[in-house]
Design a protein that fits this description.
This protein has 5 helices and 6 strands. It is α/β, with parallel strands linked by helices and 117 residues long.
Length: 117
């Protein structure tokens, strides 16, 4: 799997993904002001799962029908960077085969996976 980490997600999450061998790119290193349409386009072109805390990606995927390689939306408003890493680690350990090409939302301790056609 390859990831594109959005600006709102912790540096520690990016470092963790890289440390376990995932090809990981980060918006803050490309252009921290990039808009969501550009992010989804880059992720689609590079076959990367978008890791974000931005709920706007739901509208882009479902209302606009934008193609994507997968979205993992973390609804973690006040979590520490260390807890974000623990959550991402758990998601990858338990659901890695279901992240690609699907829209996934982690909220209140649960991961919802919406299969995309």
């Amino acid at each position: 799997m390859k990831f594109l980490v959005d600006v709102g997600v912790s540096n520690k999450v990016e470092e963790y993904l890289k440390s376990i061998g995932f090809d990981t790119s980060c918006i803050r290193h490309i252009n921290a002001r990039m808009n969501d349409l550009e992010i989804i386009q880059i992720a689609s072109e590079e076959n990367r799962i978008i890791l974000t805390m931005d709920k706007d990606f739901g509208d882009l995927v479902f209302k606009s029908g934008k193609s994507h390689a997968g979205v993992l939306l973390l609804r973690l408003e006040d979590e520490s960077s260390d807890n974000k890493v623990k959550i991402v680690r758990s998601i990858i350990e338990n659901f890695s085969n279901e992240l690609s090409n699907n829209f996934c939302v982690f909220h209140k301790g649960k991961l919802r996976i919406r299969k995309m056609l």
